[in-house]
TrEMBL record, chain A:
The gene is pstA_2. GO terms for cellular component: plasma membrane. This is Phosphate transport system permease protein PstA. PANTHER family: PHOSPHATE TRANSPORT SYSTEM PERMEASE PROTEIN PSTA-RELATED. Belongs to the binding-protein-dependent transport system permease family. CysTW subfamily. It comes from the Bacteria.
TrEMBL record, chain B:
PROSITE patterns: ABC_TM1. It is a multi-pass membrane protein. One of its GO terms (molecular function) is phosphate transmembrane transporter activity. Coiled coil: none annotated. Belongs to the binding-protein-dependent transport system permease family. CysTW subfamily. This is Phosphate transport system permease protein.
Length: 280, 294
């Protein structure tokens, strides 16, 4: 009897904690839509912040633009080193000593707090190289932050490609780079793209690294490399922290979360497409 | 591997790939060395123990008082407290997904976990500050509801997905024979899970917890918006405090390069990053031993 009660309580614990995850996500989304939804309009998306102090009226267009610039620059900087490192780990190094070390370094990089990346880029880019608080410094910081994400996801996508393709190409005398370019890469493309999207989403939501390297309370975000930019997550922080406008803060949070969930869902469907490709 | 000797082109391609991979991964060491260099005057003038255990942070005084004990204590409270809340829920959810969840429900929950990790920390911090802190203020009639506890609560929500994903993977690695034997003996599903599967997966589950601890220590925005940001030594979980990442984020912009305030913030960064790396390396050694043992 006592045993049955314990079993029932345990079952309750498992179900409650399982369903809690779902409840949390739904609560966040519904609450943001409820509080922020009414304030989203074409004007909010397409206008610059206005009113006095700035941000109490108007919209968030420069912040959207700034975030897009930042993640684009981060991707441009990190994509080549990230992919090449992944290729080394999956195709060239495999289980060698160097690959083991690189794997460990990349893994440790993934664990580095993003504020530390910001601190490093602040000292190197903003101060020493004289970039100042700028789009360039922010893009560089975000690039360092997403580099391990790109490496790990692309490496795993490449490693998941059936080993037989490599063996057959090898036995036919096809060169390694040609095999990689024409056989392995296309078969891993969906998974790699999913990883890149995740990296973009990760960069778009990051606040701490751009707070010390790139973000301004107000800027035009024209895309000039050495100018500060506005960014959605930082704008949200400022709207709340400086008590500018709670309504705009909720609406900005909704736009940001909507953008990230969209990217996330796209990445998830690409990875399930990849799984289907791998099974064939 | 005969083709390796065949073309100069192949050799060039592979050496480019090797050098890019090596150089980009070495960036981590470059970061550490750079931060160490920037903070060097602090270590040589104040000393390691003076910096770590000094309890007064007045970097603008002459002479500056630079000690970060209260921030280290805050960091530990916030991150440790987050785990205290997240562990039972995260493990419960992992067990649920691995053993009990009906298939369609599990198929919904897994992407949900992914999406929770996709929500940025500033949004968690904002919601925590706008909803949770407000709730504390009204409910307990406080002047301000920010506290280490509030930060822990939100951090817990942020690290639960990581605990779930990693511990579920650990549970799934347990060989199916144990499950079959348990079922054949007629023990309940719950008994089987708690007494047989969890002990077998405990290293992986512990690893998930340690990894979450590292994340919680380095998290900036949520903590910045919720912990209250006072520089006093926190006496309890419900006091205000200012964890290390928040200190860096708040003060970096206002320092003059070359000042001891500036150098001190880099020393703070070095301490934080070494704490996180120590946790990561510890977990790697643990997992390697696990793989070799199994």
């Amino acid at each position: 009897m006592k045993k049955a009660i314990t079993d029932l309580l345990l079952l309750g614990w498992f179900w409650v904690s399982g369903l809690l995850i779902l409840v949390i996500l739904l609560a966040i989304i519904i609450y943001l839509i409820w509080r922020g939804g009414p304030f989203i309009s074409s004007g909010f998306i397409l206008e610059s912040p206005g009113g006095f102090p700035l941000g109490t009226e108007g919209g968030i267009f420069p912040a959207i633009k700034g975030t897009l610039w930042l993640i684009l620059l981060a991707l441009v900087i990190s994509i080549v080193p990230g992919l090449l490192t992944a290729i080394y780990l999956s195709e060239y190094g495999r289980s060698g000593r160097l690959a083991e070390i690189i794997n460990l370094l990349v893994q440790s990089m993934a664990g580095i707090p993003s504020i530390i990346t910001g601190l490093f880029v602040y000292a190197l880019g903003v101060v020493t190289l004289g970039w100042g608080i700028s789009l360039l410094a922010g893009g560089f910081a975000l690039a360092i932050m997403v580099f391990p994400v790109i490496v790990v996801s692309s490496r795993d996508a490449l490693l998941a490609v059936d080993e037989n393709y490599r063996l057959v190409a090898n036995s036919l005398g096809v060169s390694k780079s040609y095999t990689l370019y024409r056989v392995i890469f296309p078969r891993a493309a969906a998974g790699i793209t999913a990883g890149l999207l995740l990296a973009l989403g990760y960069a778009a939501g990051a606040t701490a690294p751009i707070m010390v390297t790139a973000a301004a309370v107000i800027a035009s975000s024209s895309g000039a490399l050495l100018e500060p930019v506005m960014a959605l997550p930082y704008h949200l922080y400022i709207l709340f922290n400086e008590h500018l406008s709670m309504n705009h803060a909720y609406a900005t949070a909704l736009v940001l979360v909507g953008l990230l969930l969209f990217i996330n869902i796209l990445a998830l469907s690409l990875s399930s497409l990849q799984e289907r490709i791998n099974r064939h | 591997m005969i083709y390796r000797g065949l073309g100069l082109k192949e050799k060039i391609i592979s050496s480019i790939i090797i050098s890019v991979a090596t150089v980009s991964s070495l960036l981590l060491l470059a970061m550490l060395i750079f931060i160490l260099r920037e903070s060097w005057p602090i270590w040589s003038q104040i000393g390691v123990s003076g910096f770590l255990f000094g309890s007064s942070w007045r970097p603008l005084n002459t002479p500056p008082e630079i000690g970060i004990l209260s921030m280290i204590v805050s960091t530990m409270w916030v991150a440790g407290g987050a785990l205290l809340i997240a562990a039972p829920l995260g493990f419960g959810c992992a067990i649920f997904l691995a053993e009990f969840a009906p298939r369609p429900l599990a198929a919904i929950l897994r992407p949900v976990i992914n999406m929770l990790t996709g929500i940025p920390s500033v949004v968690y911090g904002f919601l925590g500050a706008a909803v949770l802190v407000k709730f504390f203020e009204v409910k307990f009639d406080l002047a301000s509801g920010e506290s280490l506890f509030a930060a822990s609560l939100i951090l817990a929500i942020m690290v639960i997905p990581f605990i779930v994903a990693n511990s579920e993977a650990a549970l799934r690695l347990v060989a199916p024979e144990y499950r079959h034997a348990g079922i054949a003996l007629g023990v309940s599903r719950q008994y089987l899970t708690l007494r047989i599967l969890v002990p077998l997966a405990r290293k992986g589950m512990f690893g998930a917890l340690v990894l979450a601890f590292g994340r919680a220590m380095g998290e900036t925005m949520a903590v910045l918006m919720l912990a209250g940001n006072t520089l006093r030594l926190p006496g309890s979980w419900f006091d205000k405090g200012e964890p290390l990442p928040a200190l860096i984020a708040l003060e970096l912009g206002s320092t003059t390069p070359g000042s001891s305030h500036h150098q001190a913030l880099f020393a703070v960064g070095l301490v934080l990053v070494l704490m996180v790396i120590a946790v990561n390396i510890g977990i790697n050694l643990l997992l390697n031993r696990l793989q070799k043992g199994g």
